[in-house]
Amino acid sequence: MLSKEDNHLLTRTGPGTPMGDLFRLYWIPALKSDELKSDGKPQKIKLLSEDLIAFRDTEGKVGLMEEACPHRGTSMYYGINEGCGLRCMYHGWKFNTNGDCTEIPSEEGDPKFRQKIKIKSYPVKEVKGMIWTYMGPEEKMPEFPEFYWMGLPDDYVMSERVWQECNYAQVMENDLDYVHAAFLHKANGKQEVGEGILSSDLGISPDHPLVRNPPVKQDVEDTNYGKRCIGVGIGSETEHAFFEIHYIFPFYTFPPRLDGDDGMWHAFIPRDDYSTWTWDVQFSHNRPIDVQANHERRGIKVDEHFRKQINFESDYGQDRELQKTEKGNFTGIRGIAIQDHAATETMGPIVDRSKEHLGTSDLPIIHMRRLLLQQAKEIQEGKEENFKLDSGSLKTLYSAGIYASNKKSWQEAFPMKPQFKKDGQEVNS
User: Fold this and answer.
1) SS3 of 329, please?
2) Which of 13, 42, 337, 391 is most deeply packed, by most CB within 10 A?
3) Contact of 361 with 180, CB cutoff 8 Å
4) Residue 424's pLDDT band (boundaries 50, 70, 90)?
């Protein structure tokens, strides 16, 4: 469990909070590229409790800026997007994608006044159909994180984002939890799925080692990108299944997969303290990905604001009879992502970790919390250095489990690749 003070530190990410200041030192996925059209409608987006507006100008450049006009605070969402800038509807003040004020119709006789005006804006970068931003001090901007899937052909990759109704930490903890799959995601019968696809919308086939039994052993290694979380499950009478979850500091993950499965990458970005932008990128290593099958198995349908249509108000579509039949599943809920949302959102907007009772299966979660809290406390103490991601590692990193003899330890069967080791730091067990 955590103290109430540490739980508060872990979960608050708004401007001026230690965790918020820490998160602003890393690149954040903000929107999908196809949400913005040149000279089209601006889009509202809340990130780290900041209300922002995104737009694409006449030349195709993306701007991400504070929602409030610096003149009198009117929302720029209602402005006119044309002529390489966004013009406030109230008095016609116009701003380009860099946040520079380019026109003040009411003050045309005073050009020096206009040159002093700037709306708060953030740098952006578009990669693989996603718009990323950096919200921290310019002098501390890190290298852009070039994840493995960014180097794949476009039709090998699909991405989705959804508004999740709870704090980012409990969403991310779910992703580091091996054991929940054996219950939350277990289908009662064998599932027919396409090549590389882990599950149907009911869940994972009961003979798959992720759900056949909870992993019999777990361990965690320190790395130059965060943590490598090891899970060992029973594959057969003679083999174990060795899995890995990669926690990439501070809010990215690669969930467990076996060699041959399509890969998955997640980002959990605080919208505010009580909701999260959950990003799901699925990718195939060697062929075009089956977009429809992967979308259907997740079960997420969203409205124009990216909120789920199957949600808490509808009991996540739970069918009690589905839990009892051979063609059903453990939860009675369809959609593997909906199952995750049901588990994490029903904890409440911010779970009280001072009341929890952690077990040995929670080791990866404990390690993730320790690292985040350590880094946030160093921010509190005014230390300048934060955790630096190794760019070279990210280009080759993904989760790929294996089968190997159950006579071998995980260290023998599934050792960490040398390029991921953190200099001068031993493995924590």
Assistant:
1) strand
2) 13
3) no
4) low
Q: What CATH number does the domain located at 148-420 have?
A: 3.90.380
In the sheet where 130-133 sits, what is the strand order? 28-32, 130-133, 124-127
Quick check: do 27-140 and 148-420 share a fold? no
| Angle made by CA atoms 53, 247, 400, in degrees to the nearest 5 | 115
Overall fold of domain 27-140: Rieske Iron-sulfur Protein (2.102.10)
* CA distance linking residue 253 with residue 177, whole number of Å: 12
Where are the strands (E) in 181-291, listed by range? 217-222, 226-234, 239-248, 252-254, 263-272, 275-283
Token pair in block for residue 100: 């520079």
Helix (H) or strand (E) holding 410: helix 410-413
Q: pLDDT of 323-342, one tens digit each?
A: 999 899 999 999 999 999 99
Number of neighbouring beta carbons within 10 Å of residue 143: 11
Q: Which residues contact 125 (CB under 8 A, 6 or more apart)?
A: 27, 131, 132, 133, 144
Give SS3 for 376.
Answer: helix
Our separate counts of H helices and E strands in the chain read 11, 19
Q: How far is residue 159's CA from residue 103's CA, in Å, rounded to a whole number?
A: 37
